[in-house]
Amino acid sequence: MNRQIMTGSLLCLIASMSWGAMFPVSHIALQQVNPLYFSFLRYFSVTLILIVLLWLKEGRAAFRFEGKGKTLLFFGTMGFTIYNMAVFQGQHWMGAAGTIVASIMEVLMPMISIAMIWVMTRKMPPKYTLVSMVIALAGAVLVITNGKWTFFTLAGQHLLPLLLIFTGVVGWVVYSMGGSHFAGWSTLRYSTLTCLLGTLVSFVVVTVSSAFHWITVPGWQDVWSVKYEMSFMILLPGLAALLSWNAGIRMLSPLNGILFINFVPITTLVLMYFQGYTISQFELYGTLLVIFALVLNNMVQRGSLRTTSSPRRIRVRLDRPKSFQR
């Protein structure tokens, strides 16, 4: 294993485990601070750090929008306003169970991406991908319902939180796809400008919500009481995971790096267990089903790529001039 693969694997592992730990840690913090303010304060701090890093590395010119301000605003809103506020609000409303649900929804991102591309291009994905999507969906249903059919009779109580979490996850998928529109930009520049604009939108959301008394402005004591949780959320899932994941994906390629997303629910389940949460067999089996679906899709995809690429290597070898053959 060469150094690039080892470094890329380590970066993707750091990002995935940070995201997995994010939900149990945020569950504690959300008991004291409103989810909307929690999301805003978290990425306000991340934005300040990113601005300093971008200024030092690329200078003032890197802050120019170059006519792409509206596009940056859209993707920033999807990634840093919609995703964070919707996921944490939905998780908070569902209580302890929302921690696992949010984690499972996170792992479904690759499948959601495939579904979105299917809708936009109207090109059906391979059959093995469809099978993997069905298996992953079955696993997600097991976790969400916890094996209780009464969940569907009480769907009204869970529908809004689930829709919020799902909407947030779709928002991050859209944001991730947005990077392709800025191919000539560095990862740091795209991350900083979208985070900056998304945080400004979040500021508008919390300001308007507070003005209409929809949410309560947290006191300084409330924020200070979750200083350790907030510090963790800022430095690891907020800053380190964002930069590590983008850098790791570049080193490994999306096909290889996406496997590390499986560590999100694993990390979540381990931390919840140590927090005293009793993990049911349905939550465990459902999580394993989702992981199996992602691994299955990736492994079959690898095999199909090797099959299609092998004939090309053979043709190149046969077509060489005799003077170059050993």
Q: Can you summarize this structure?
A:
The chain is mainly alpha-helical and 326 residues long.
Report on the structure:
With 326 residues, this protein is mainly α. 80% of the residues lie in helices and 0% in strands. It is built from 14 helices and no strands. It is globular, with a radius of gyration of 21 Å. The protein starts with a helix and ends in an 8-residue tail after the last helix. The model is unreliable at 313-326 (pLDDT under 50).
Jot down its keywords.
transmembrane; Diverse_Substrate_Transporter; membrane; about 325 residues; Drug/metabolite transporter (DMT)-like permease; mainly alpha; cell membrane; 14 helices; globular
Low-pLDDT segments, ≥5 res: 313-326
- Structural class, judged by helices and strands? mainly alpha
Strand content: under 5%
**Rg, alpha carbons:** 21 Å
Q: Summarize the main sheet.
A: none
Keywords: Cell membrane, Membrane, Transmembrane, Transmembrane helix
InterPro entries: Diverse_Substrate_Transporter, EamA_dom
Pfam family, one: EamA
Membrane topology: Multi-pass membrane protein
What is the element layout, followed by pairings?
Layout lengths: L2 H27 L5 H24 L10 H26 L1 H12 L1 H13 L5 H19 L4 H4 L1 H24 L8 H25 L8 H6 L1 H26 L1 H4 L5 H12 L6 H38 L8
